[in-house]
Amino acid sequence: MNFDDIFSERRVGYDKPSQGPRSGFQRDFDRLIFSSGFRRLQNKTQVFPLPGTAFVHNRLTHSLEVASVGRSLGKMAGERISELDLKKPDSKDFYKYELANVIAAGCLAHDIGNPAFGHSGESAISAWFLENQNNHFSGKKLIERFTEAEWQDLINFEGNANSIRILTHSFRGRFKGGYGLTYTTLASILKYPCESTGRDKQFKHRKKFGFFQSEKQTILEVMNTLGMIPEQDNPLIYKRHPFVYLVEAADDICYNIVDMEDAHRLKILGTEMLSEVFINLLRELDPGQIDRNIKNYKSIGDFNEGIAFLRAIIINQLVKNCVEVFNNFLPDIIQGKFNDSLMSQLKQRAGTLGEIEKISAEKIYNHNTVVQVEVAGYHIMGELLGLFVPALLSHNLNSKDEKLLKLIPYQFTEFEKAGTDYEKVLNILDFISGMTDEFATEMYRKLKGITTPSHE
């Protein structure tokens, strides 16, 4: 790879370049902001339960904050890359003025494929297929209906791959090419540029997988157009695109720090303990300003605002430090030799980041309210799949199955003419994974007879 050839305004589903005052990368950001898929993130769990009066983050507010951080990372990294010996005349302008838009758009899109109820939604989908693999549907075992690669997609359902599908798939009655995003923005969120059969936790870029079999050819075109480095053909594996590291860093910065702030607002973490941790981190990141920062923090009388002040200073410092790491590893990153994340590298100089991860695992992600939502979501998603998938695969629909299939929105009814069971099942996953927490819960309650539907 080289920095002259890893960006393009070419779009999925479009042959002609963008026209008008906005660049293709600005259009990507705008299309995402106004999309229904992005709006639905407002009722999808980030970590803590959404109902109640406490003001905590959901997937939408998280994505907006990640985009804000990502824009800063893109701007600062772009300034550095623009100083390199670039060959093409438009390269310098792209890195100075457009990389920030690419990273911000990628950050908006990075969670758009996450199902309801956080990561437990992903686990529930995977588990349903595993638990039912030997069950017969219309006289045939579930597992026997799919190729090995298709089956691996289903039993390892991945929100990252689902994001790529939502953004690029031509749903029934919708525009060709999904959101019609640029190849560059899509590459920036391709955190795991391999198919499901190529997963290997020893490597950062293969820890999970980045696209379903249904989008394999589209993503292959993206990777080849942008000069990404192929690792092997079968299974298909590529090295990461350099811009991925900036989107990933923006996400890592936000959830590491903001989850702690949310836990403080919910009184899961105490002010004294959290302020000590945050100040220790600032001492490692910006020792020259630590006395001033402590003085300013102590002058704030409101506990929540005080923690918010420290959070803001920390995010600013993490952005600066991550850009420094990115710049230091530029040669390895562009050659596909960097098998790490920017934040992981930063832990070597800021050990408190490891302490924050430990606190998060012990006090936040295993808190009763978080676990309760995960268990409830696991049950709800599994029950919905248990209703819709058998109906879809049935060769002789009964009255109940016919009525269930009528509940599926038109855009997800490609199964009516789909050629394979894999394509049919993906339609159901499109429908169920796109549900908000509230919608999934309400549909579950109605279909299981817990509540009676009304016209309200």
Descriptive terms for the model:
mainly alpha, about 450 residues, globular, two-stranded antiparallel sheet, 20 helices, two-stranded antiparallel ribbon
Structural account:
α17 (368-393) runs antiparallel to α19 (421-433). It is built from 20 helices and four strands. A two-stranded antiparallel sheet has the order 1-2. It has a two-stranded antiparallel sheet with strand order 3-4. It starts with 23 loop residues before the first helix and ends in a 9-residue tail after the last helix. A hairpin with a 4-residue loop joins β3 and β4 (237-238). With 456 residues, the protein is mainly α. The protein has helices spanning 24-33, 36-39, 59-81, 91-109, 119-131, 148-155, 159-168, 183-188, 216-225, 244-265, 271-285, 290-298, 303-328, 330-334, 342-346, 352-364, 368-393, 399-406, 421-433, 437-447, and strands at residues 136-137, 140-141, 230-232, 237-238. The mean pLDDT is 91.
In which range does the helix fraction lie? 55-70%
What is the radius of gyration? 23 Å
Q: Order of strands side by side in the largest beta sheet?
A: 1-2
Biggest sheet record: 2 strands, antiparallel
What percent of residues are in strands? under 5%
Give the topology string: H per helix, E per strand. Answer: HHHHHEEHHHHEEHHHHHHHHHHH
Shape: globular
